[in-house]
Design brief:
The protein is of the alpha/beta class and 679 residues long. The protein contains 29 helices and 21 strands. Strand 14, helix 21 and strand 15 form a beta-alpha-beta unit. The termini are far apart. Belongs to the transketolase family. Its EC number is 2.2.1.1. Homodimer.
């Protein structure tokens, strides 16, 4: 490396440092230490190795870059601005301000070039595992001899915090097992977190840990030495397994008084320290200014356009030789692509098939029956389970198991619920796949933050949560979800479906697969449920989230229920009818979808003039908005017990007799309630 080249590379890295400390200072909020400490690594990767096109952040064959330690977002924003993305300097000046394109942590869909929303530590590296898996599977499926149209890498920056979070153990273990050789992670080993030097609470042998996972580990790389970084990146891209590059760095590098201290982590440096840092770095440009020669050295517009054009020419040759494959690959790359006619036909068959009207069936089994139809019709479908395939029933006829270093469309995630959720998010972010994964509903607690990130990023990931109530029976309260359905319903933009029979299950699957702007959760029973009703019009009514299942002429009370308790409500209505009391029965398979319907539909399904009783084998809190102040809710606001399911439903009053009695009691007070509501 010549002296001139060394000086240029140093100043290119210093441009990141200057922009980071200026933006954090202007906002008086943020984390300058990581961008300043990893600036040299970023320069080595982005200016000399990363394949991307600033003019097209969605280019299919671009390298993916993930900042897992997302608090260092100014590093990413500086890189995007400097290399030529549509992120003008004005947006860097507005760092962390309302409606800026530079939020406090990177957000996909807000800032061009951001691949995933990071902030909750450990999830970025786990998303990256999903991205690398997607690249591997797509390359296996679509590449042909002489036509490697899918051939890109996933690079990750991560820190001590990501490695302390348990999710990184889950996902990185799988990455090693799957031998994801195009995944390269750079570990910012600076020994500092918010609370200070990490030695007192983070004594892991990190290189040894990753070697045990089956990764290639490059130890003790000087994170401020351009030549050492170049050599490390060269070695990493030649490896035959995922790579962890352990980079020794100083947090806040360049700051005379803050470098190497916790003060550099999450505080603005202050005007005086910034002046000293500029002097130490030899950076004379004013705040938010980049010298012309440095800006020119950073721009990737021309090189990115050339890389993209060369790939387009390769793809054109591929399309000429393999037109059907090319069309399919382009279709699957579209994140908003509608379901194919073949998939829609399979779903229609599943929803209306005679198989669903047979004897009682558990909705988890009905779900598998849907997959048996739609799986072969949707090559983009990739499913899996957190070590519960035989219980969640997430496999289907003709599926191909992904085990070890092979390929397939059914993933065994092992006992890793959180890792599964984040990897599915990565698969969805990459494009080319529609992921779903299963576990018991009670273990949604382990996956919950991953579900939340699916919603925040508007990813069409599907979560199959089986064993949805005390119907689990003998396994006892540790495995019996009580608050979990309500907990998931509280997450914005998540559609939580709790179907009452096989037909509702099929419609739930159809709506979840049609959805392209957010995740869906399917809450399914272990126990068999009877068929609740027929009619083609019922299918479209189910799709609206709630509908009238029983509508007598002289109705005087409404019974609302979801899932297994719809059968309880229907039985209660039959008991009430024996006393001359006619009850409407409303099935509510998805509160979230129902609440998005127009007022006319909502009021027609759940009329305000009828006294209302709701029943669900779980927390009662969210049902009150449907039954009103003078309604009633039969539910479960305590933990379960270990016993056969039938005994538990009787113990907790989740029976037709109890619901009918509560309805009679409500009607006895209906006149008073009506007067109060009118007042």
């Amino acid at each position: 490396m010549t002296t001139d080249n060394f000086a240029l590379r140093t100043q290119c890295a210093n441009a990141i440092r200057a922009l980071a400390m200026d933006a954090v200072q202007a906002a008086n909020s943020g984390h300058p230490g990581m961008p300043m400490g990893m600036a040299d690594i970023a320069e080595a990767l982005w200016r000399h190795r990363l394949r991307h096109d600033p003019a097209d952040p969605r280019w299919m064959n671009r390298d993916r870059f993930v900042v897992s330690n997302g608090h260092g977002s100014m590093l990413l924003y500086a890189l995007l601005h400097l290399s030529g993305y549509a992120l003008p300097m004005e947006e860097l000046r507005r760092f962390r301000q309302l409606h800026s394109r530079t939020p406090g942590h990177p957000e996909v869909g807000v800032t061009p070039g951001v691949e995933t929303t990071t902030g909750p530590l450990g999830q970025g590296i786990s998303n990256a595992v999903g991205m690398a898996l997607a690249e591997k599977l797509l390359a296996e499926e679509f590449n042909r001899p002489g036509h490697e149209v899918i051939d890109h890498r996933t690079y990750v920056f991560l820190g001590d915090g990501c490695l302390m979070e348990g999710i990184s153990h889950e996902a990185c273990s799988l990455a090693g097992t799957w031998r994801l050789r195009k995944l390269v992670a750079f570990y910012d080993d600076n020994g500092i977190s918010i609370d200070g030097e990490v030695g007192g609470w983070f004594g892991d042998d990190t290189p040894g840990r990753f070697e045990a996972y089956g990764w290639t580990v490059l130890r003790d790389v000087d994170g401020h030495d351009a030549a050492a970084l170049d050599a490390a990146i060269e070695s990493a891209t030649a490896a035959d397994r995922p790579v962890l590059v352990c980079c020794k760095t100083r947090i806040g590098q360049g700051s005379p008084n803050r470098a190497g201290t916790a003060k550099a982590h999450g505080e603005a440096l202050g005007e005086a320290e910034i002046a000293l840092t500029r002097q130490a770095l030899g950076w004379s440009a004013a705040p938010f200014e980049v010298p012309a020669d440095i800006a020119e050295a950073w721009s990737a517009r021309e090189s990115g356009a050339a890389l993209h054009k060369a790939w387009q020419e390769r793809f054109a040759a591929y399309a000429q030789e393999h037109p059907a494959l090319a069309r399919e690959l382009l279709r699957r790359h579209r994140t908003d692509a509608p379901l194919t006619a073949k998939a829609e036909a399979a779903l229609a068959s599943a929803a209306s098939g005679a198989e669903l009207r047979k004897a009682s069936v558990a909705t988890r089994k009905a779900s598998q029956q849907v997959l048996d139809e739609v799986g072969p019709a949707m090559p983009e479908l990739i499913g899996g389970s957190a070590d519960l395939t035989g219980s969640n029933l997430t496999d289907w006829k003709g599926h191909r198991e992904l085990k070890g270093t092979g390929t397939g469309n059914h993933v065994h995630y092992g006992v890793r619920e959180f890792g599964m959720a984040a990897i599915m998010n990565g698969l969805a972010l990459h494009g080319g796949f529609r992921p779903f994964g299963g576990t018991f509903l009670t273990f949604s607690d382990y996956a919950r933050n991953g579900v939340r990130m699916s919603a925040l990023m508007k990813l069409p990931v599907i979560y199959v949560f089986t064993h949805d109530s005390i119907g689990l029976g003998e396994d006892g309260p540790t495995h019996q979800p009580v608050e979990h359905a309500s907990s998931l319903r509280l997450i914005p933009d998540v559609d939580v479906w709790r179907p009452a029979d096989a037909t509702e299950t099929a419609v739930a699957w159809r709506q979840a697969l049609r959805r392209v702007d957010g995740p869906s959760c399917l809450l399914l029973t272990r126990q068999a449920l009877p068929h609740a009703g027929d009619g083609g019009e019922r299918i479209e009514s189910i799709a609206r989230g709630a509908y009238v299942l029983r509508r007598p002429e002289a109705e005087c009370v409404a019974l609302l229920a979801s899932g297994s308790e719809v059968g309880v409500a229907l039985a209660a209505a039959a008991l009430l009818a024996q006393d001359g009391i006619e009850a409407r029965v409303v099935s509510v398979p998805c509160m979230d979808v129902f609440e998005r319907q127009d007022a006319e539909w909502r009021h027609a399904v759940i009329p305000r003039y009828l006294p209302r009783v709701a029943v669900e084998a779980g927390s009662t809190g969210l049902w009150w908005k449907f039954v009103g102040e003078y309604g009633d809710v039969v539910g479960l606001d305590r933990f379960g017990e270990s016993a056969p399911a039938g005994e538990l439903f009787r113990l907790f009053g989740l029976t037709a007799e109890v619901v009918a009695e509560r309805a009679r009691h409500l009607l006895a007070n209906a006149a008073l309630a009506s007067l109060k509501e009118a007042a």
